[in-house]
Amino acid sequence: MPLLPPIGAEIPCSMLAVNSPLKIRNSLVTVDFRGGIKHRVDVNPNDPMNSVRMRTVGFKISAELPGENGGRGSITIEQNDVDVDPKSLLRITQSFPPKLENIMVLDFTMVIEQPSNGNGGEPLILTTKDPAKLIGTLGQADERADAVESEHEGHQACAEAGDVLQQGS
Predict the structure, then answer these.
(1) Average pLDDT for residues 57-79, to the nearest whole number?
(2) Which of 69, 80, 72, 74 is nearest to 32 (CA)?
(3) Is the peptide bond before 48 cis (omega within 30 degrees of 0)?
(4) For residue 139, which of 89, 91, 127, 143 is within the disulfide window of CB 3.0 to 4.6 Å?
(5) How far apart are CA 14 and CA 49, in angstroms?
(6) pTM of the predicted model, to two decimals?
C-alpha cells in the first residue's frame, strides 16, 4: 500500500483554530479561525520515491473580531497568489510504522477589518515578507498529528506584525 497520495490528487482540509491569541497593534484578542486549505499533489523531482510536492490551490481562514461598543469586525487570512512553484512537501520519514513529515510553505495576506478602529474604517492589511513554514509529523491514519511547529514565532497566530508580516499600503 503506497504511503504517499497519487500525483494529481486534490486534498481538501478543513481548519479550525479555537481561542487563537492575536495581537493587533497594542490589543490582545482571542478569536476562533475557521476555513480550509486545498493541496494538489505534484511530483517532487528531487526525491520522487519518498516525497511529493504539495501545491496550494486554495487557502482561506477567517474569524469574527469582537469590537468595542458591540461593533464587530473580521480577520481574513488568505493565500496571496497562485502557487506556481510549490515548496510544500509531504515526505516519508519512516516506512514501518509509517511516519510522514508535512512541510507547508505559505505566502498569505491578513486583512483586519475593525469598523471602530479610529482609522476611518480602513482595514489593516498585512502580508508575509517571507513565506510561513509550518512543519508537522504525521503517523498512521488513526493517529493525530504528533507535532506542528512554526519556523517563525510570529506565524503561530499569524499575528505579530514585526519580522514576519509587513503592513500593506
Answers:
(1) 86
(2) 74
(3) no
(4) 143
(5) 28
(6) 0.74
Amino acid occupying residue 128: T
Residues 6+ apart with CB under 8 A from 107: 79, 80, 81, 127, 128, 131, 132
Query: Which residues lie closer than 8 Å to 64 by C-beta, 6 or more apart?
Result: 31, 32, 72, 73, 74
Please give the grid coordinates belonging to residue 72: 464587530
Q: pLDDT tens, 124-159?
A: 899 988 888 989 988 765 444 444 444 443 333 333
